[in-house]
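Hi everyone, sorry if this is the wrong subforum. Our group has a chain we'd like a structural model of before ordering constructs, and none of us has done structure prediction before. Sequence below.
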Amino acid sequence: MTTKLSVIITAFREAATVGRAIEAFLSQLPTDAEILIVCPDPETTVVVDDYAARYPVVRHVADHPQRSKPAALNVGLKAARGEVIVLSDGDVVVAKDALALLLAPFADPRVGAVSGHPVSVNPRDTLLGYWSHLLTEAIHQMRLARDWAGQFLVCSGYLFAFRRALVERVPEDALAEDAVISHFIARQGYRIRYAPRARVFVKYPTTYRDWLRQKVRSAGGYAQDYVRK
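Answer:
Right subforum, don't worry. Here is the predicted structure as tokens:
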């Protein structure tokens, strides 16, 4: 049986935040939709199973530990029944009206994917916090300009949606799965849109070590052949 929409949330060691991530979607989930939480660790699983017991639309999809995020996405995609897939993370929170705004551009059959708008919740009075706001605003303006011009843009992995039929699986060695999926869809002739009011609130790294690890990984992802071809 298919449904109209599958929300896939990947989580790892996010027992403290995954509940808020689920609740944010529950409050705006349309009929004939489901929420799948892909997580391997016992602590997060306990929280997810509690939500699944209380809400029939929530399902826990077991993942294998020590595998990549793309591998977790493939597990979720295999279990998903939706014609449209929404991807998000277990440590972010979508705005209360984000889902409808994210899905609206799919009324155009030429649209294959839609990106949400990440908003930093880090304090501005720290160096990394200030930098997170600067970067997110710069990327926001770039996506606005490219969307207005009808140009290709890369979706944000914190919140984006795509037509399930366009993505069979994600290469499990992909370092920037959002960029890989975006390029896969664009190469099939579909447009990628930006939904600037579909906000997702993100806490960015607060230490230089974590920030550097994140940037090195994303930079490496953009150098892979999946993106450069």
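For your construct planning: Helices lie at 18-26, 42-54, 69-79, 98-103, 127-148, 177-187, 208-222, 225-228. Residues 71 and 120 are 27 Å apart (CA to CA).
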